[in-house]
């Protein structure tokens, strides 16, 4: 896992429209980079919709939000349209970026072990350094706690 006050690893992934996006594209303003397990699942939908519902507060604070999961570009497009999400969703099907950020890990559900994304959010300063890392995120409360941190940047 990465540490706070270190440089966030750059990356290049496709968004829901197939447009290439790099971390460096977002320099100059704070960025909320959130990793989530899967489109259209209850927790991930709650988390995304809470970011959506607080989006105007993020805009007022000049903060960009970007979501990343291993779902396909096509899945992201449907998810974004269904819930009217106003921010990009990036596709990391080979979990390369997830591994760079230390969020690809063994998980367990009902006794079965599998590899997947640990729900984690990185708040990245305008200079590209990591200001705050949220691990073990609770989807229902998360957007508001992130907002409190970014307002202080």
UniProtKB/TrEMBL annotation:
Thiol-specific peroxidase that catalyzes the reduction of hydrogen peroxide and organic hydroperoxides to water and alcohols, respectively. Plays a role in cell protection against oxidative stress by detoxifying peroxides and as sensor of hydrogen peroxide-mediated signaling events. Monomer. GO terms for cellular component: cytoplasm. GO terms for molecular function: thioredoxin peroxidase activity. Belongs to the peroxiredoxin family. BCP/PrxQ subfamily. Keywords: Antioxidant, Disulfide bond, Oxidoreductase, Peroxidase, Redox-active center. CDD domains: PRX_BCP (cd03017). It catalyses: a hydroperoxide + [thioredoxin]-dithiol = an alcohol + [thioredoxin]-disulfide + H2O. Residues 2-153 form the Thioredoxin domain. Its EC number is 1.11.1.24. The active site is at 44 (cysteine sulfenic acid (-soh) intermediate). One of its GO terms (biological process) is cellular response to oxidative stress. InterPro entries: AhpC/TSA, Peroxiredoxin_AhpC-typ, Peroxiredoxin_BCP/PrxQ, Thioredoxin-like_sf, Thioredoxin_domain. This is thioredoxin-dependent peroxiredoxin.
């Amino acid at each position: 896992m990465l540490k706070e006050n270190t440089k966030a690893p750059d990356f290049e992934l496709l968004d829901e429209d197939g447009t290439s996006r790099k971390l460096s594209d977002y320099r100059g303003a704070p960025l909320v980079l959130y990793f989530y397990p899967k489109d259209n699942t209850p927790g991930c939908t709650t988390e995304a919709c809470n970011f959506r519902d607080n989006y105007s507060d993020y805009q007022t604070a000049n903060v960009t939000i970007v979501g990343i999961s291993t779902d396909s570009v096509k899945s992201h497009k449907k998810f974004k349209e269904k819930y009217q999400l106003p921010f990009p969703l990036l596709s990391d099907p080979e979990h390369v970026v997830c591994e760079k950020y230390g969020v690809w890990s063994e998980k367990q559900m009902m006794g079965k072990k599998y590899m997947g994304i640990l729900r984690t959010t990185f708040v990245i300063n305008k200079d590209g350094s990591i200001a705050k890392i949220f691990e073990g995120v609770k989807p229902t409360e998360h957007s508001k706690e992130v907002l409190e941190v970014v307002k202080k940047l």
